C-alpha cells in the first residue's frame, strides 16, 4: 500500500517506523519534543515514544552531537536533528575528530551508528546562516557518508538505510522541498542503498548531474531544451554525495559525451569539481566538450531580497546546456 506524502512527512514516517521497530533508536535535538521540531519533522513522536526516546536538548550543538556519539558507542542508535546546516558549526569538531574517526581510531572495534539530519539550502527566504550548502565539508571527511534526497520516496528509503548503517551518516534535507510536492510513498518500510545514484531521465546528448532541490531545476531545464531544440538530456540524481556512484557517472558520460553539474553550493571546491575529476580520470576520451558547472557563487548565501540571483535557475541551467552542446 502507498500514500501521498510530502518529504517532511516521509522523513517523519521513516523515524516513526524505526523507533517502533528498534528500541535502540532514539532522537535528539533542540525543540524536537513537545514542539515537534522547527519544521515539525518529529511531530507526534514525543507523545508516542516518550522523553527517553525523543530527547529535547539544550541549544548546544557540540553537546548534542557529542552526547550522541557517546550513546552510539554504548549500544544506542541516535538520530540527531540540527535545526539548520550552518548551525552545525559548533559541533563540527565532534563530527570530524570523533564520529568520523572512531572506526579507524579503534582499528574497527567500535563504530558510531549515528545519523545527523539537517535542513540545508536556500530558497526559503531565511536569514543569515539558514540557507547554507556546505556538503563538501563532510564529503571531504573520511569516515562519513553524506546523503541528500530530492523527493519524498527517496527521503524515506534513504533515511531508513542511514539509521541502519553502522557508521555515521550526514543526512541533508533540502528545506525548499519539505512541502513543495507530494508523491506516492509505500507505507511499509523499504530501503534505498546508500552510494547508488539514479538515472531519473534517459538521454543521449548531454548528462546533467544534480541532487537535492537542484534536481527539479535540472529536469525542468532538460524539458525546456528538448521542447526548443530537440536535444535529449540524461538527468542523474546522485542521492549520495559520499561515496559517489562513480560507475553511474562514468557510464552516462560514455553514453552522452557531454556533462553539466548543477549545485547550489559555492563553485570553488564544490562537489562539481570532484565529479569532473572522476570523468577526466575514467572517461576523458569520450568527451565531446568540457564539463560545465552551474552553481551558486563564491559569496555568502545572500539575504532573501537577492536570494534568487544566487541560486541556479532553469534559465541558467538551460544556458549551460546550450553552451556545452554548441561547443
Structural write-up:
The protein is of the alpha/beta class. 36% of the residues lie in helices and 19% in strands. It is built from twelve helices and 14 strands. The protein has helices at 7-21, 45-49, 61-73, 92-99, 102-105, 135-139, 152-164, 214-229, 246-256, 271-283, 307-310, 314-325; strands at residues 2-5, 25-29, 54-56, 77-81, 115-120, 145-147, 169-174, 183-186, 198-201, 206-210, 233-237, 240-242, 259-263, 292-295. Strands 3-2-4-5-7-6-12 form a seven-stranded mixed beta sheet, with helices on both faces. Strands 9-11-10-13-14 form a five-stranded mixed beta sheet, with helices on both faces. Strands 1-8 form a two-stranded antiparallel sheet. α1 packs parallel to α7 (152-164). The protein is globular, with a radius of gyration of 20 Å. It starts with a strand and ends with a helix. The mean pLDDT is 96.
Write the layout of secondary structure elements.
Elements: E1 2-5, H1 7-21, E2 25-29, H2 45-49, E3 54-56, H3 61-73, E4 77-81, H4 92-99, H5 102-105, E5 115-120, H6 135-139, E6 145-147, H7 152-164, E7 169-174, E8 183-186, E9 198-201, E10 206-210, H8 214-229, E11 233-237, E12 240-242, H9 246-256, E13 259-263, H10 271-283, E14 292-295, H11 307-310, H12 314-325
Parallel strand pairs: 2-3, 2-4, 4-5, 5-7, 6-7, 10-11, 10-13, 13-14
Antiparallel strand pairs: 1-8, 6-12, 9-11
Low-confidence stretches are none
Q: How many DSSP E strands?
A: 14
Helices, by number, come to 12
- Rg is 20 Å
Bin the helical content: 25-40%
> What sort of overall outline do the alpha carbons produce when their principal axes are compared?
globular
H-E order: EHEHEHEHHEHEHEEEEHEEHEHEHH
Mean pLDDT: 96
Structural class: alpha/beta
What percent of residues are in strands?
Answer: 15-25%
Output the strand order for the largest sheet: 3-2-4-5-7-6-12
Give the biggest sheet. Answer: 7 strands, mixed
Q: Terminal Cα separation, in Å?
A: 48 Å
Amino acid at each position: 500500500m502507498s500514500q501521498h506524502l510530502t518529504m517532511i512527512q516521509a522523513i517523519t514516517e521513516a523515524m516513526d517506523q524505526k523507533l517502533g521497530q528498534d528500541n535502540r533508536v532514539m532522537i535528539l535535538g533542540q525543540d524536537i519534543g513537545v514542539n515537534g521540531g522547527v519544521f515539525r519533522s518529529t511531530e507526534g513522536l514525543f507523545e508516542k515514544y516518550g522523553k527517553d526516546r525523543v530527547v529535547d536538548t539544550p541549544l548546544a550543538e557540540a553537546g548534542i552531537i557529542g552526547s550522541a556519539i557517546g550513546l552510539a558507542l554504548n549500544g544506542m542508535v541516535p538520530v540527531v536533528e540540527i535545526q539548520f546546516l550552518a548551525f552545525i558549526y559548533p559541533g563540527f569538531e565532534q563530527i570530524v575528530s570523533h564520529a568520523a574517526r572512531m572506526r579507524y581510531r579503534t582499528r574497527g572495534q567500535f563504530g558510531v551508528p549515528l545519523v545527523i539530519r539537517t535542513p540545508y539550502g536556500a530558497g526559503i527566504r531565511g536569514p543569515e546562516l539558514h540557507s547554507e550548502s556546505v556538503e563538501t565539508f563532510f564529503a571531504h571527511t573520511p569516515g562519513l557518508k553524506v546523503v541528500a534526497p530530492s523527493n519524498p520516496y527517496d527521503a524515506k528509503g534513504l533515511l531508513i538505510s542511514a539509521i541502519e548503517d553502522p557508521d555515521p551518516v550526514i543526512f541533508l534535507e533540502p528545506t525548499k522541498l519539505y512541502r513543495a510536492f507530494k508523491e506516492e510513498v509505500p507505507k511499509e518500510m523499504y530501503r534505498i542503498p546508500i552510494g547508488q545514484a539514479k538515472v531519473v531521465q534517459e538521454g543521449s546528448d548531454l548528462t546533467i548531474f544534480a541532487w537535492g532541490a537542484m534536481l527539479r531545476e535540472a529536469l525542468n531545464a532538460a524539458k525546456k531544451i528538448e521542447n526548443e531544440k530537440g536535444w535529449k538530456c540524461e538527468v542523474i540524481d546522485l542521492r549520495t554525495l559520499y561515496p559517489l556512484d562513480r560507475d553511474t557517472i562514468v557510464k552516462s558520460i560514455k553514453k552522452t559525451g557531454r556533462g553539466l553539474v548543477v549545485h547550489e553550493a559555492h563553485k570553488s571546491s564544490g562537489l562539481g569539481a570532484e565529479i569532473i575529476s572522476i570523468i577526466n580520470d575514467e572517461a576523458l576520451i569520450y568527451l565531446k566538450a568540457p564539463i560545465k558547472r552551474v552553481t551558486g557563487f563564491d559569496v555568502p548565501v545572500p539575504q532573501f531580497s537577492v536570494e534568487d540571483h544566487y541560486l541556479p535557475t532553469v534559465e541558467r541551467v538551460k544556458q549551460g546546456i546550450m553552451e556545452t552542446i554548441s561547443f
